[in-house]
Design goal:
The protein is of the alpha+beta class. 50% of the residues lie in helices and 13% in strands. Strands 2-4-3 form a three-stranded antiparallel beta sheet, with helices on one face. Strands 1-5 form a two-stranded antiparallel sheet.
């Protein structure tokens, strides 16, 4: 049994961003590297993307902080760059300098609630992220995953606190990984106005965990476990799905 606060102690802002970076699309990274190699000036022109939050308003507690924490701490994992670089070289000449640029890449843009951006449609709810073109292309998938999780946990906890006094609720998590505890506890504490993750516990678990367009194996499993075969099949399906529109 493991308390939520013990899980949270293992996850700082850098590790949180690294976990969310699992949603980087290798195909998009390859395309961005080719575009940057071809014309860096065009590839790094400033642009923007809208993140819609159906369940939230721009003032929803915790949402902006989680998004900015991710953006200001995210880096493209070295293993991802090496994996993509090795395969891109087969068909395109991408220089070491280009891959070094992506390895050293850090967010240099801004995030604005929709009411602070130059939009007049009051029905829009969400955020505008402004950054360089290839950087935004890379960040879109991880940001969509994070926004979906924020919306899910906000909706769940709004439902909880509508029916229970906030002093009577606490977080007992059953997630397969600490990043989900991090997001949910952050949202829950923002909505209730108090720490709530210290009273909950989660059980040890081994098996295949499916989540937003991804699948992982958690816990200790033997190499010949049927769960690993299941996870492989699910991951192949999820990988194919990432090429389809959301």
């Amino acid at each position: 049994m493991q308390a939520c606060d013990e899980l949270l102690a293992r996850l700082d802002a850098t590790e949180f961003a690294h976990q969310i970076s699992a949603w980087f699309d290798p195909h998009v990274l390859a395309d961005c590297a080719i575009r940057y190699e071809r014309d860096p000036a065009v590839a790094t022109q400033r642009t923007s993307v809208f993140l819609g939050l159906d369940q939230l308003s721009p003032n929803s507690p915790g949402a902006l902080e989680l998004i900015t924490t991710f953006l200001h701490n995210v880096r493209i994992p070295k293993a991802t760059i090496e994996f993509v670089a090795a395969r891109t070289l087969r068909s395109h000449a991408v220089s070491k300098a280009t891959w070094t640029w992506f390895h050293d890449l850090a967010f240099a843009g801004e995030v604005l609630p929709i009411m602070e951006a130059e939009y007049e449609d009051e029905t829009l709810s969400g955020f505008i992220v402004k950054e360089r073109d290839v950087v935004l292309d890379l960040l879109v998938q991880p940001l969509k995953a994070l926004v979906d999780l924020i919306g899910l946990y906000t909706d769940n906890w709004n439902s909880v606190i509508q029916h229970q006094p906030t002093q009577d609720v606490f977080l007992r998590h059953c997630s397969g990984g600490p990043v989900f505890v991090y997001i949910e506890s952050h949202i829950a504490e923002a909505l209730t106005g108090r720490p709530i993750a210290d009273a909950g516990i989660i059980a040890e678990y081994s098996g295949c965990v499916t989540r937003y367009r991804a699948a992982t194996v958690v816990g200790k499993l033997p190499p010949d476990s049927a769960d690993i075969d299941v996870a492989r099949d699910v991951m192949r399906h999820m990988a194919a799905e990432t090429r389809k529109p959301i």
